[in-house]
Amino acid sequence: MSSFVNLVADVAPGRPLIDNNNVFYSIVGGALLLLLLLILFLRRGRRPPRDADGGLVEKLVEYPPAGPGPSRLFLHGQPVRVRLVVMAPMGKRSLPSDGAVEPALERVVRGLGNIVRQDRPRVRAWPAQLSQHGFAPTFFRLTHRPEPAGKPSPWLLAAGPVRADGQQFLLGLALFADVPTADNNLILDATQWSEWFRVGPRA
């Protein structure tokens, strides 16, 4: 009986369960901190993954047609209009420092700079690419044609490394042809651009 009375006295109102208030507040504060860290961890786990390529996607269906001009670009004899130019440095190199794309493209294919000035395509600068061989597949994947894959399309894509005055960079072109074709993707090396492309008068 005396033990029961002593126990009741120990927990009677007016006497704190924890005599040291500092210990009590430390325990409560630690519990709240752990709860906050748990909430932050769970919210971070639900965050959607960052899309590194989201800002590089091009939808060609949204592109306006090129206006008329006195010259045309020919891809193996087929007349095409330039609607998109993508340039990217290779590794730690930088893009040509001319301040405009036309001078650099003029040194890739004679007359290409003037064609770009005439056709007024969209020009995009991509981040540095770690893989020279991976640039073309990435450009093809992120440049969307209106037509389903495998179907004939007037849109042609050409991509690969280029060299201008000793500087190397990566180039991707989206071209609109007069006649649809099923052969839509072309990968070129630095020596083939002037072999595949030429500039001539508009027919």
Q: What order do the SSEs take from the amino end to the carboxyl end, as H and E?
A: HHEEEHHEHEEEEHE
Biggest sheet record: 7 strands, mixed
Estimate the strand proportion.
25-35%
Percentage of residues assigned to helices: 25-40%
How many domains? The number is 2
Q: Low-confidence spans: pLDDT under 50, at least 5 residues? A: none
User: What is the typical, i.e. mean, pLDDT?
Assistant: 83
Distance between the termini: 115 Å
Count every beta strand, where a strand is a DSSP E run of 2 or more residues: 9
The chain-level structural class is alpha/beta
**Quaternary structure annotation:** single chain
Rg from Cα: 32 Å
Instruction: Work out the helix count.
Output: 6
Shape: elongated
Description:
The protein is elongated. The strands form 2 sheets. Strands 2, 3, 4, 6, 7, 8 and 9 form a 7-stranded mixed sheet that branches. Strands 1-5 form a two-stranded parallel sheet. The N and C termini lie far apart (115 Å). The protein contains 6 helices and 9 strands. It folds into 2 domains: 2-46; 54-201, no CATH class. It has 203 residues and is α/β, with parallel strands linked by helices. Helix 3 crosses helix 4. Strand 6 and strand 7 (167-181) form a beta hairpin.
Keywords:
203 residues, 2 domains, two-stranded parallel sheet, 6 helices, 9 strands
Provide a quick synopsis of the model.
By secondary structure, this protein is of the alpha/beta class. The chain is built from 6 helices and 9 strands; from the N terminus they run ααβββααβαββββαβ.
Write the layout of secondary structure elements.
Layout (H helix, E strand, L loop, with lengths): L1 H9 L10 H26 L11 E2 L11 E5 L2 E12 L11 H8 L3 H8 L2 E4 L6 H11 E2 L8 E12 L2 E15 L3 E3 L5 H4 E5 L2
Parallel strand pairs: 1-5, 3-4, 6-8
Antiparallel strand pairs: 2-3, 2-9, 3-7, 6-7
